[in-house]
Specification:
Layout lengths: L1 H7 L13 E6 L2 E7 L8 H9 L7 E6 L11 H8 L3 E6 L9 H8 L3 E4 L3 H7 L1 H9 L3 E8 L18 H12 L3 E5 H7 L14 E5 L10 H4 L3 E6 L4 H9 L3 E5 L6 H10 L4 E6 L1 H9 L5 E6 L28 E8 L2 E7 L1 H5 L1
Length: about 350
């Protein structure tokens, strides 16, 4: 099963909104088939492993990291493939929370005389699929927040200069973090100030969605995020229709929401409906603060540079309302620290993820 878990991580890009799944088929003590899922529309791990095993799958045991699916989607049910192949036993790590499966896959296999064992290495499988589990349990994406700050928590100098607080090696690590997410979210201030690209810029990485919180639709039609043609601009109902038309003319999607400010939970729900279940919030200060105030962040990636900027006028990493009492401030669960260039990266869980 641990080999199946390793195989599940083989794809170069996340398979979202589908889960990470690996499969190993064993017959008479020898591995006869291996497979993993590369994403929507591709073979499921079981189908890939069965294809490699061929006739050797008859009487074999299939080890799979997720309960086999039993419904038609873009590909046929894996339960049908396992039954046709004549496997004698299926061992899976975790139950699939998808309401179309959720125990039904195991029941179908048992009804055809296949022995089924569940829960092997379930903790590892759940950790691997934390994004998928969050989406299935709440209907919302898994949200990470990322910041780069000085030792005294500043993200820019008193003159507004922010390039660069961290060194090149730390910034390359940040690109790897981007590549693990489907969408990068920023506020309009970041777009107007920096005109960022917001892509991973790594060979083989998937092209991320750019999401801009922009209540008044001030996003320039010629900005780099819009020119990617994979940009969603979230605005209020009061925003200019003419500006919307200009942005849409350049290939951006404009999503309107009632009220004067974009409701974050509704925005996340709509992103999930589009199949975007992994979002990285990069700022600015008020945007990070708003996600923390709303309790919508699941993980934090915090780069710390070995520098002290100072000044009461320098921008802090997090704005928003903040906590009234230290005991009520968001606290990282399961924190870890790693080197990042000449500084450090602190990674920890927030909210539901921290409570697990």
């Amino acid at each position: 099963m641990r080999l199946a878990l390793e195989l599940a991580r083989r794809p170069r890009t996340p398979p979202y909104p589908n889960p990470w799944v690996g499969c190993v088929i064993v017959r008479r003590g020898a591995i006869v088939g291996r497979g993993w899922h590369n994403g929507p529309g591709t073979r499921h791990a079981e189908a890939a492993a069965l294809r490699k095993a061929g006739s050797r799958a008859r009487g074999a045991t299939a080890y799979v990291t997720l309960e086999p699916c039993c419904h038609f989607g873009r590909t046929p049910p894996c339960t049908d493939a396992l039954i046709r192949a004549g496997v004698a036993e299926v061992v899976y790590a975790m139950r699939d929370p998808n309401p179309l499966v959720r125990g039904k896959g195991a029941r179908i296999l048992r009804s055809h005389g296949i022995r089924v064992v569940g829960g092997v290495c379930s903790a590892e499988a759940r950790a691997l699929n934390e994004v998928y589990l969050k989406y299935r349990s709440t209907g919302l994406p898994f949200v990470s927040i990322k910041a780069a700050a000085s030792l005294d928590g500043k993200t820019a100098t008193r003159t507004g200069r922010s390039k660069w607080i961290t060194d090149g090696a730390a910034r390359r690590r940040g690109l790897l973090i981007r590549a693990e997410h489907q969408a990068i979210l920023v506020g309009i201030t970041t777009v107007l100030r920096d005109d960022p690209h917001l892509g991973p810029r790594l060979r083989g990485a998937m092209e991320t969605w750019r999401v801009v919180l922009d209540s008044g639709l001030r996003t320039p039609p010629g900005s780099r995020v819009v020119r990617t043609r994979k940009c969603i601009v979230a605005c209020s109902a009061e925003a200019s229709c003419a500006r919307q038309a200009r942005l849409e003319g350049q290939g951006a999607q404009v999503w309107r929401f009632p009220g004067r400010r974009v409701p974050l939970r509704r925005l996340l729900s709509r992103l999930a409906g589009l199949g975007i279940i992994s979002v990285l919030v990069e700022g600015g200060s008020e945007v990070l603060g708003s996600f923390l105030d709303a309790g919508l962040a699941d993980r934090a990636y915090w780069f710390i540079a070995p520098t002290i900027i100072g000044s009461r006028k320098a921008l802090s990493a997090v704005g928003g309302a903040g906590a009234a009492w230290p005991s009520r401030a968001p606290r990282l669960g399961n924190p870890r620290v790693e080197s990042a260039g000449d500084g450090w990266l602190i990674v920890g869980d927030l909210g539901r993820a921290a409570a697990r």
